[in-house]
Specification:
Layout: E1 6-10, H1 17-30, E2 38-42, H2 48-57, E3 63-66, H3 83-88, E4 93-96, H4 99-103, H5 109-121, E5 125-130, H6 134-138, H7 142-153, E6 165-169, H8 183-201, H9 203-208, E7 210-214, H10 222-226, E8 233-236, H11 243-254
Parallel strand pairs: 1-2, 1-8, 2-3, 3-4, 4-5, 5-6, 6-7, 7-8
Helix pairs in contact: 1-2, 1-11, 7-8
The structure holds 1,3-dihydroxyacetonephosphate (13P).
Length: 255
């Protein structure tokens, strides 16, 4: 099974209007040739319309995504943003279950599941992020945690959603720390994730779902990680703020 790699740039709470626009334009220009991977960027909410217009103006294939979404359609949910609002400003993708939402904003599996379902039902590409903490890793719970987060996050997801579903394995201890899972660690965790997906959706469907690795991916380590047969791309934080590095990661995946 050949899966088209997908590289995401999760900007988190970084950039400003001018820097975000410049970064998006540099990424769009940099990946317009020489990469066969799909490329998505996830800027902060306020800059989405501006960046959407800039990507459209150049006819870029770069997918615009949001870092979060709320599952309700509309109403009294102060501070929240709906799927329809994201689509209205040109988003085609969204992240759910990112470890910073789980551990800093205290989102639980049920909320993450509702967000994931709303995104998929609304036609967005949804990247559900899973991953263990350092303590969970040390007590050998990596596969168990990933499985629990997958089964809970994907409750109610059906075959009709699967072409828009991406999973990101992001070990919490590797995010923003400079510590990367070894290629073998990533391969092992991804294999177990795919086995869970096969149990949920069948072998053929599971074989088509892309599983990204995230956690201190750099231009220097991307190629080695993405050589692993079960690693179908990367979800990149820090290095996605540096256009040359991010473009190099995209090319390492799709080259
Ligand atoms: P870093 O690449 O900065 O470790 O962040 C990874 C991440 O959280 C991407 O979503």
């Amino acid at each position: 099974m050949t899966r088209t790699p997908i590289i995401g740039g999760n900007w988190k709470m970084n950039t400003d209007r001018a820097a975000g626009l410049a970064l998006a334009k540099a990424v769009a220009a940099g990946v317009s040739t020489g990469t066969k991977s799909e490329v998505a960027i996830y800027p902060p909410f306020p800059y989405l319309p501006l960046i959407s217009e800039a990507l459209c103006a150049t006819g870029s294939q770069v997918i615009l995504g949001a870092q979060d979404v709320y599952h309700a359609e509309k109403g009294a949910f102060t501070g929240e943003v709906s799927v329809a609002m994201l689509k209205d400003v040109g988003c085609r993708a969204v992240l759910t279950g990112h470890s910073e939402r789980r551990h800093v904003l205290h989102e639980g599996d049920d909320l993450i599941n509702m967000k994931t379902l709303a995104a998929l039902n609304g036609g967005l590409i949804c990247t559900l992020c899973v991953g263990e903490t350092l303590h969970q890793r040390e007590v050998n719970e990596t596969d168990h945690i990933n499985e629990r987060q997958l089964r809970a996050g994907l409750r109610g997801v059906t075959a009709a959603h699967l072409d828009r579903l991406v999973i990101a394995y992001e070990p919490v201890w590797a995010i923003g720390t400079g510590k990367t899972a070894t290629p073998a660690d990533a391969q092992n965790a991804h294999s177990h994730i795919r086995a869970v997906l096969a149990d949920l959706f069948g072998n053929d469907a599971a074989a088509k779902i892309r599983i990204q690795y995230g956690g201190s991916v750099t231009a220097a380590n991307a190629a080695e990680l993405m050589k692993q047969p079960e690693v179908d791309g990367a979800l990149v934080g820090g290095a996605s703020l540096k256009p040359d590095d991010f473009v190099a990661i995209c090319k390492a995946a799709g080259g």
